[in-house]
Amino acid sequence: MTKTALLFTSLLVSIYFSSINAFAQEKELEVKTKINTDRSVNFSAERRSPGTYTLVLNFRELNNASSVGNPVFKVRYNTNNFLTLTPINKDQNIGYSYSYSYIRGELNPKYNPLFLYTIPYANGRKVRVAESSFVNATYFGSTTPEDWKSYHFYTEKADTVMGVRKGIVVSISDLYDEDNKDVRYTSKVNTVIVEHADGSLATYRGFKKGIFVKEGQTIFPGTAIGINSITNDRYSISLMLTYLKSVDFESRKNVKESRSLYGFITPYFSTIENLNGVLSTQKYYTAVVTPEIVQKEMTKKEIKSLEKK
Fold it and tell me: What percent of the chain has pLDDT over 90?
């Protein structure tokens, strides 16, 4: 009986003047089995980082048990028992071998496309906004996704990056401290991924080493995440909002012809210039972070805790 993890397709994230590059994380999830006294078999997924994953199970062999109709499972907890096989013949064991694939995010979540976000800087901060291009198209000849959307928010000097919506920090890459001042393109970018309540994901890229938040931490609009870094002689942070729309892992094998497994969200932002609207590229906007915005998704307990501070 064998089991092999075939594939982990990582979240594609935006980077400066280009955007999309695989943000790899190894062994974030492991499937384990347990044979019970009644010969049934439990399949559980052990996670090593917070957040939701979608797991696809592929049985190469399955004897003395009914076939699994839809082998796609949502894994949300540290150890999640997601499947139990029951023997057809109670006097015999189940024979099986399998492989599995997994990816960050909930498949086709019911996300809110009209949700109102804040700009990722402090209240009253005025920044320049620019849309990012698709790195696979710029450098590798791929076709830009029809729904592609990613922003850069530029500041005149190093500044604190704030959360744009309540969510759980599910991934942090805080490895790089080199100066990219004269570099136009680099994949060595410190990154934070935040999962929101509706299943959407926010990817912030471009931090100086020394990110403030931790994996598993709940952040809110206005929560300090880290300091933006300098690339190509400009200080900025990139922000991309996505959701998982497909688990067609086979389509990812050919880089030029592959399609993103993630859909891209065009967000609405609240700014001084426009209280509820889509940002225009190469324009300046001023951040608005009001108590109403901060508390919009807070629980009663979180609001009470905030009021005590």
Answer: 68
Cα 307 to chain centroid, rounded: 30
Encoded tokens for 235: 């200080």
Number of domains in the chain: 2
Residues 138, 281: Cα–Cα separation, whole Å: 18
What is the tens place of the pLDDT at every residue in 171-221? 999 998 866 655 555 678 899 999 999 999 999 999 999 999 999 999 999
Partner residues linked to 263 by β-bridges: 243
Residues 228 and 284 in one domain: yes
Q: Residue-wise over 60-77: b if at least 16 C-beta within 10 A, else e?
A: eeeebbeebeebebbbee
Query: Is there a single domain that holds both residue 276 and residue 227?
Result: yes
Q: Which pLDDT tens digit goes with each residue over 225-279? A: 999 998 777 899 999 999 999 998 887 666 555 678 999 999 999 999 999 999 9
Can you tell me the distance from the alpha carbon of 11 to that of 23, in angstroms, rounded to the nearest whole number?
Answer: 6
With contact defined as beta carbons under 8 Å apart, do 207 and 192 qualify? yes
Domain around 10: 3-104
Q: Please name the amino acid found at residue 287.
A: A
- CA separation for the pair 283, 111 (Å, rounded): 27
Continuous segment of H or E residues that includes residue 153: strand 151-155
AA letter at 93: N
